[in-house]
Amino acid sequence: MEEKRERHLKPLTMKLSHAAFELSRALAQQRDTDRPELDRKAYEIGLLFVAMEGAADEEGMYGILTGERLAQLLRPHCLPLIEFLERYGQLPVVLHSLLGN
User: Fold this and answer.
1) Residue ranges of the domains in the chain?
2) Which of 8, 31, 62, 94 is most exposed by smallest CB count within 10 Å?
3) Degrees (nearest 5) of the Cα angle 30, 31, 35?
4) What's the whole-model pTM score?
5) Which DSSP string do the residues of the chain spell out, in sequence order?
6) pLDDT, tens digit, 9 for 90 and up, residues 20-48
């Protein structure tokens, strides 16, 4: 039987802008969710996008992730992002053309 690894969550202290703090508070209230869980999710998803924005190192790594693994982790967030941008008329022209809209 495979041994289950324990996930060790480490506390993180960071300073947020007033706007980010208020958005987090309002979203947690609006979605009736635990604020620390919402903040953890936002931090983890945000790190993926921050990693993607920069260039890979000489070995093709984005921090501790290969480009392929980073792409795999970003993929589930892409369609909701594209649909959101399209709904509010902010879809980049290149994607608009590819989608035939």
Assistant:
1) 18-99
2) 8
3) 95
4) 0.80
5) -PPPPPP----------HHHHHHHHHHHHHTT--HHHHHHHHHHHHHHHHHHHSPP-TTSEETTEEHHHHHHHHHHHHHHHHHHHHHTT---HHHHHHHT-
6) 999 999 999 999 999 999 999 999 999 99
